[in-house]
Structures are given as structure tokens and as C-alpha cells.
Amino acid sequence: MIDDAQLILELSFKAVRSSGAGGQHVNKVASKVELSFNILDSVVLNAEQKERLITNLQPRLTKNQVLLLQCGESRSQHKNKELVISRFLHIIKEGLKVSKPRKPTKIPKSAMKKTS
Q: In terms of C-beta distances under 8 Å and separation of at least 24 residues, what long-range contacts does 52-61 make, across chains too?
């Protein structure tokens, strides 16, 4: 299993201005947080974990295998940073899960009698 604290140290953050309504305050404060995580440059993940994440998170990754997340739900930059980190950890944990192989079920005798 991976260490969340070590993984968080590899993240890079950028604060930008949120879009939408908010009056004069929204034009002055950068409360939206953008998180970026480069899977290939990670030292916490081993090669197998990197490959699994690249496969499972392919639609969410850039061409350079970087995961980008944004959060602008709150007016507080600190709250948005907490939210985007928790969302990131959830996505990584889901991406690392190994799916069980499907076992084909046996065809019932009644279905076999209907076809013959």
C-alpha cells in the first residue's frame, strides 16, 4: 500500500481566480486550487502501480501522464486545497484497485433444453 503523506509531498498546487459570480471579491482573490501530479516522476509508486494508474486513469490524464484536478467549490483557498487533496487520494486509491477476473457462469440446463 502507498503512504498518503509521501504521495502528498509529490503534488504541486497552483492558486487561480475562480470563475462565476461573486462580486468584487472574486476579482481580487485566487481561491480556486489546481492540483497536478506526474505519475511517471513519482518516487512513491513502483512501476506496477504506475502502469495500473496509467491504464485505469487514462481518460483523466494528459499526454505527459499528468493528473490534473481543480477545486473552486469554497471561497477559501485552504478549504479548496483540502477538498482537492481528498479527491486526489480517492482517485488514486480507486485507480490502484485490482479488478477480479470474471468467472463465466455455467449455462443452466433449462436454457440448453430451450435451444435444442
A: 52/95, 52/96, 52/98, 53/92, 53/95, 53/96, 56/94, 56/95, 56/96, 56/97, 57/91, 57/95, 60/91
